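User: Structure please.
Assistant: Input sequence and predicted structure:
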Amino acid sequence: MEKTIATELSPEGIDDNIFNYLEEEEINLELDDAILYFGFPVFKDYEQNSVKPKFVLLSPNHGIVLIYTSDKHTIKEDDEILEQLYSFVESSFRKSKILRKNKRELAIPINSYLYASNIDENKDEYDLENDILTSLSAIFQTIVEIHTDEILSEEIIKEARSIIEGAKVVASTSKRIKVSEDPHNKSNILIALEKEITNFDEEQRKIAINLINGPQRIRGLAGSGKTIVLAMKVANIHLQHPKKRILFTFYTKSLYGLIKELITKFYWHYAGTEPNWDLIDILHSWGGRRIDGVAFNVSIDNNFHILSFKEAQTINPMDPFKTVCQRLLKNRIEAKYDYILIDEAQDLPNEFFQICFKLAYGESGEQKNIVWAYDELQSIFQVYQRTPQELFGQNSSGIANIDLNKFRLKLHHTQKNDLVLFKCYRNPLEVLITAHALGFGLYSDNHVQRLENAEHWRDVGYTVQEDQNFNIGSTVKIKREHKNSPLSIYQYQSPSDLIETFAAENAIEECEWICNKIKGSIEEGLNPHDILVIGLDDKYANKYFAKISSLLLEYGIRSNNLLASRVAAPPFCLKDMVTLSTVHRAKGNEAALVFAAGIDALYHQRNTIKGRNKLFTAFTRTKAWLKISGIKKNSIPFFKEIEMSLTNSPELKFTVQEISSIQRDFDSSPDEIAKLYSVVDEFKEKGYTQEQLKILFNETIDGQ
């Protein structure tokens, strides 16, 4: 039986007795495949008061069973609450065709009971709508008696669960028009894909529903649904605690609209009305005079100066926001929020988390209701994630302000304060595996980065055998299961359909190949704005994009060349236009079809983290198809790595290498190293031998 506690308060007293009893009798009551909710779903009554249930049991063998604990002093009021809960569940189910047997009857039975052990034997005198159970054995007997004649289908149970947990909120209908009945057609594949990507799966919902007292961390690959999970948490908190102040903060300014829309949808699903936005702040982490933000508002609320972007950049060009936060921390910051939720934590400095720590009510870290979510492995640079102690700092005694391991000991055994989302909906399985393989350089002579142990690989969704070790020289074989990359595109497209490579004789031939592929994809039903061309060659990106724009125009296809735009911050995606972008500008964006052009330019950065990270970032921008091109000589080594990755997929097979300090030192100045390699290549083309080059190099060094 799956158990979900959706309130910070774990079951106590009689509630705890019932919870434990149902756990103990799980097999005898045939509840193996059931789901038991405590404190969920919360909804609003006609007077906009929050109505909280106690136990909701969803079982293939029993349907829905509602149990509300009471006593003889509050029995009438509790009976009314339970009746409202019954009506809410029933009316929600009636909206679903799957859950309706006919106009009058549901396909899933709903039964509701009051539990009150101190009620007199003569229960009829209370004139209640619901039956009363007075003992644990009575619960057992009742559940046995309502066993259904036929086991409810998986479809019915999934539909009922999705309605209870709010999954229907994010379901979307594609606006794309079919151009063919062929399931292998790109347009049809994308219609199915977009429906899957917007799915709110059971694991995501379970994490979203899970509320605890104190801090909580959520981890997962980019595209695992962390923003949706946090939005539902806000709605759930606001339903349960309508007078508490909530902050939702994030790094990417463009997320604001999506976050507000999601919170509104989730809240409306249960309350039938808008949230009280006076008590919910959705704020960018920094902000400024034109837009509210956490740092900016802290300075206003506490009457002290905040550095402008220009001032902060002068002090710290690499991380101006870090400097802003450091300055703010020198001042006294008053607590303001009962709950703080932080998205995109990987992009924010430690000092920002320490500001949030001060903004949260609570005498100690254990009492601070702060939830933070971050991307595992957002880039090849960030394989190491900062600990809670690094993020939130220490107190005056040198003790960590937030210690998840210590705080975990006081939680109910079904509650967690460190949660992982294993599934990735952004990239097809073969693309994600290939991005990891080439990003780390696993199939090259020199690995540039690695995950240190089995647990870290498991956290990003790989299956690792218990006896597998990651010592230097060990042979490693790990697997990514389809359940953790659940997009069904693999049923219609082979790995070679998803990832295609092309080695051109020259740049013109490469540009022509790219444009022909774009033309063909649009003819198959893709929109121009579904397509993104990423230039990997920073030096010649302008020339690449000018040629591609010109060729596309000959086909009647317009392009959005971000490098040619006269606007300081041009929109990344424009309707009916193919986007042309560098790797840097593509970060955080995605497209159905991605071209990674000019891979040969990274040949001399192939042993650097920076060079490999460009590949990783470019590859993971695609939701479906990836096409990689370059000029023959220096692109072939990368194409061999890609071929090996596709051959081994869904596994990664490699020998653990020592990551040398030389490689890391080189990475600090990869552009200079790349220039040096280019000069060497020019000399080789002029006929210089390896020995002559060594002599020339030594003479140059000696001359200096």
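The first strand starts at residue 2 and ends at 5.
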